[in-house]
């Protein structure tokens, strides 16, 4: 899926970034090989690359098995294989990806195996990562936490949160007030999650 009116320099760089790891060819060969590979992925029903152009603003969640280049604005959660946030782009929300490259603005939570914050980036996020690179000159405000599996740890966190919300709803309906938690209560809560 391509949301772009023109093939700008950053879109070409995105295409090069995406195809770089897939072929060992030189730049011109890589571009034609990358186009051919994209067509093959479309024919086989596999994921493709998407470009959110600078004129596009999305409010809501975006999920794909493919790669995403954002030059516009996204206010919502993004789940993809590779996310590149362009220099003029803004992404606000939860980002879950195998790899994230930030060249523009990112706010929220980033969970990725590899995170690269480039010198033009402005990041105000909690970053959960296996590998992190912050270039000199980048603005990074927030927290960085290394994790062996930052992408999949989110699922257990979400299930724990859902279990706690369910307990809170039951307490509201029954009109009971929370009491001081004993160790056995804490163990029971952990078992629910």
TrEMBL record:
InterPro entries noted in UniProt: BacA/B
Ranges of compositional bias, category Basic and acidic residues: 184-193
Compositionally biased spans, kind Polar residues: 1-10, 28-40, 154-163
Disordered: annotated span: 1-43, 146-193
Pfam families: Bactofilin
Family membership: Belongs to the bactofilin family.
Name of the protein described by the UniProt record: Polymer-forming cytoskeletal protein
Native source species: Candidatus Filomicrobium marinum
Lineage: Bacteria, Pseudomonadati, Pseudomonadota, Alphaproteobacteria, Hyphomicrobiales
């Amino acid at each position: 899926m391509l949301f772009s009116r023109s093939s700008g320099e950053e879109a070409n760089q995105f295409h090069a970034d995406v195809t770089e790891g897939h072929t060992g060819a030189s730049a011109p060969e890589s571009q034609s090989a990358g186009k051919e590979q994209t067509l093959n992925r479309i024919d086989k029903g596999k994921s493709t690359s998407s470009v959110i152009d600078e004129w596009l603003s999305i409010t809501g969640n975006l999920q794909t098995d493919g790669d995403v280049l954002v030059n516009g604005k996204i206010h919502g959660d993004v789940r993809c294989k590779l996310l590149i946030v362009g220099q003029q782009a803004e992404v606000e929300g939860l980002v879950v990806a195998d790899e994230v490259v930030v060249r523009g603005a990112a706010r929220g939570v980033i969970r990725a195996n590899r995170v690269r914050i480039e010198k033009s980036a402005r990041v105000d996020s909690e970053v959960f990562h296996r590998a992190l690179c912050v270039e000199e000159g980048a603005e990074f405000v927030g927290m960085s936490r290394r994790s062996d599996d930052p992408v999949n740890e989110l699922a257990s966190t979400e299930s724990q949160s859902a279990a706690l919300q369910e307990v809170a709803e039951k307490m509201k309906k029954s009109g009971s007030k929370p009491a001081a938690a004993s160790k056995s209560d804490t163990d029971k809560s952990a078992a629910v999650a």
